[in-house]
Amino acid sequence: HSSARLVASRLGIKLSTLQIGEHGRWLAEPIGDTVQDFAIIEPCVAEMGIGDLDQRPALTTPWPWHQRRFSRRIAVALNEVTIQQFRSFDPEFDSLDPMLSHSSSNAAIMLVNLDLAYRFCNHLSERSGMECCYGLRPGDDGVALLVPKPDHLALTGYRLPTDGEWELACRSDTVTSRFLGNEHVLVRHYGWMDENKTKAQQGPHSTFLSQQIAAFLPNRYGLFDTYGNAKEICDLSADPVEQEYETIDSLARSGAARNGTFPTIRGICFMDSGAIYARSHCRTNGILADRTIGMRVVRTLSTSDVLHGTVP
Asked: Rounded to two decimals, what is the model's pTM?
């Protein structure tokens, strides 16, 4: 499915609108005025983290190598949220920043912080008639903050991926440092990064812009741009619970206050070195001033989930 989508895009062929619903290992659902395709990942046990033979790049905080159990059936968006999709939530968000205002509407949204990400997910859930995954709670300074609901990983509304879910989707059943293998010579074919930024669209005065999504090869799950374009913000709620022989990806900080806490950032942006940072375990924390942070949405699917309707 993803390969056909990429070939059609490169040849300038407009595909028919995706049929809403589940299609084997992928599904299509409405987001804004577009139809978004998702990869379905079944409950599993996966190996992840940084192996003993991997060289640890600077500015990363990877987990040691371990087995992690995922008990949820999830749907992960094949691409990062686009400017066009984000405009369904905030039509004017990109109007004052050259990184977005001069970009294609099919480029990845950037300049996203945790509050915007949570609000966008709630907006999608409300439009689709699903229960929102994030709710308000008073912060330490008395200002209400959006935080994950205690059971939000069990809800079927839209949300951010947990740190573990992101790496699970990026690795796509591989155990090497990259899903294409350990070598870096091919990595430039899998996303916008420093190695191919000469092809990137630039704005006035050579300002680098948000780039078009899904312009490079997908991984084995069909996901695009996990190794380049926008960095991706993860959920600030779930830490894995370590047991004797494996780690469980479940809610360990339910409803945790956000004050002084920073989300994990995954992936790399179009200005980062793919040879150094384009690795499935690469993760950073606390870079909220970074202007290249975007997002990718996921949903928890129930085993009897019947996917719905028409584009609103």
From this structure: 0.91
